[in-house]
Amino acid sequence: MSDLIPAPRALTPGGGEVRLTPDSRLHAEAPVEGVARLLGGALRQATGLPLREGDGTAATGDDIRLRLRLRPGLGPEEYRLVSDGDGVLVEGGGPAGVLWGAQTLRQLLGPDAYRRAPVDRDRVWAVPHVTVEDAPRFAWRGLMLDVARHFLPKEGVLRYLDLMAAHKLNVFHFHLTDDQGWRVEIRRHPRLTEVGSWRARTKTGHRASPLWEDKPHGGYYTQDDIREIVAYAAERHITVVPEIDVPGHSQAAIAAYPELGNTDVVDTTALSVWDTWGVNPNVLAPTDTTLRFYEGVLEEVLELFPSRFVHIGGDECPKEQWRRSATAQARIRDLGLADEDALQSWFVGHFDAWLTARGRRLIGWDEILEGGLAKGAAVSSWRGYAGGIAAARAGHDVVMCPEQQVYLDHRQDPGPEEPVPIGWVRTLEDVYRFEPVPPELTPEEARHVLGTQANLWTEVMEDQGRVDYQAFPRLAAFAEVAWSDLPAPAERDFAAFDRRMAAHYRRLDALGVAYRPPSGPLPWQRRPGVLGRPADGPPPNR
Ligand code: TNX
């Protein structure tokens, strides 16, 4: 029972247990009926018990074993779970709090509560008597999934939203576009998906690898798929933050619409969706054509995604083509800008103003700080802590996701047997000791740290199994860092966490997650011949 992950703020065990029987009912107040639908649905599948909805009145009150309701005075994501002689009561400050309490309830029922059908119809289902008081440390507990490098079909995305909710994560950063693929239908620019969503072949492993997979790879989400994903996330109190990456990482868009590129320095009609990895020189041209095109893209994106934040990328934009382009240089002169960095700043600033005028906020990778950044914009600090520290000191909100710590594409063991051993070694323990708020920040500056995010870049993760392997078990440690009030990194009790992981592996088994086993990859998970980088070498694309 005390093997909950992420660990709650306070847990007081009691003596007995609440048993669930075919007569047990579930009652939820109107504002949290959505949570009851999710919890009831999951538990009916797993237990085979009917768990009928009770109306909460005295007549059926005796059978009501699970109650969900709001409790004024608690924070929106805060909850209290009491299991005693009266049954199980989950109260939250808001529906999100009740949902997180319901996730704790599932863990208290045991690993089989995560299955889709009962494996033993005769077993006894019980919740131990306990009082749990709990609330998250950070409001932004994110996971970024790159579906551009390798497309993950819609079902897989919905499954990841379920896995996030089970770990009390609440922001899904959806990396929808990159050099290697455009994954969201845009009605006014159909070639983005007709052309931009497929590539002819794919580099296997690191970009230095001589190996190719010679078969087309691609796919995209229709606008209805996106609406379904956003609604599914909302039911789980997860916000979907879409990313449309500009002005770099745009070769798929340029392949679809060559006029978006720097046509005076490169024949963009000859470009195709990129088939290898790394930092790509083919970036967007800083022209009115490009601005109008992406305003059109973003108009449709805003209709699909209600999220306050919209991510515009802004990372890894080589300036070589702008240096050689007469058009880009004319723009720099006309705007009275210092150089190409200032031109990127102007480009980002344009979309910052555009989004702000529509009631949204821009967020981008930390390169958007270079050359100055509009006040309301927020920063995803990925190249270490420095960008995040600078941003917080300048009064910008920050999401901490340093690649040295929480890039889950990087190897999780120094041994040579990791499937594609790229990047720095970051073990389960390293992730558990990751601290999102750098000690250099004053308490006032630290308030700008909205939270933290783990990033799943998928160059070397070609399917769901590989994504699972890189994400787990480390995402469980990350979830505890994002949710729980852990002490300073050196004082964290990793051994105790690792003991709780024993129960969590059983939950992940029931969920069908292909995690990295604690003893290392299974024979069929190894990939002899797939190149990586030496341990502690530079990350995969540089
Ligand atoms: C850097 S993080 C990138 C990505 C790569 C990743 C691989 C960031 C903003 N850019 O394009 O996929 O490294 O680890």
How are the secondary structure elements laid out?
Blueprint: E1 10-20, E2 25-28, H1 33-47, E3 52-53, H2 58-61, E4 64-70, E5 79-84, E6 87-92, H3 95-109, E7 125-134, E8 140-146, H4 154-166, E9 171-175, E10 177-178, E11 181-182, H5 191-194, E12 198-199, E13 202-203, E14 212-213, E15 217-218, H6 223-235, E16 239-246, H7 251-256, H8 288-304, E17 309-313, H9 320-324, H10 326-334, H11 340-357, E18 361-365, E19 378-381, H12 386-393, E20 398-400, H13 403-406, H14 428-432, H15 443-446, E21 449-456, H16 464-471, H17 474-483, H18 494-511
Parallel strand pairs: 2-3, 2-4, 4-6, 8-9, 8-21, 9-16, 16-17, 17-18, 18-19, 19-20, 20-21
Antiparallel strand pairs: 1-7, 5-6, 5-7, 10-11, 12-15, 13-14
The chain binds ligand TNX.
Describe the structure.
The protein has about 550 residues and is of the alpha/beta class. The longest helix is centred in the middle third of the chain and has 18 residues, at about 340-355. An 8-stranded parallel beta barrel has the order 8-9-16-17-18-19-20-21, surrounded by 6 helices. Strands 1-7-5-6-4-2-3 form a 7-stranded mixed beta sheet, with helices on one face. It is globular. It folds into 2 domains: about 10-135, 2-Layer Sandwich (Chitobiase, domain 2), CATH 3.30.379.10; about 140-530, TIM Barrel (Alpha-Beta Barrel). The model has no long low-confidence stretch (mean pLDDT about 95). Strand 19 (about 380), helix 12 (about 385-395) and strand 20 form a beta-alpha-beta unit. It has helices at about 35-45, 60, 95-110, 155-165, 190-195, 225-235, 250-255, 290-305, 320-325, 325-335, 340-355, 385-395, 405, 430, 445, 465-470, 475-485, 495-510; strands at about 10-20, 25-30, 50-55, 65-70, 80-85, 85-90, 125-135, 140-145, 170-175, 175-180, 180, 200, 200-205, 210-215, 215-220, 240-245, 310-315, 360-365, 380, 400, 450-455.
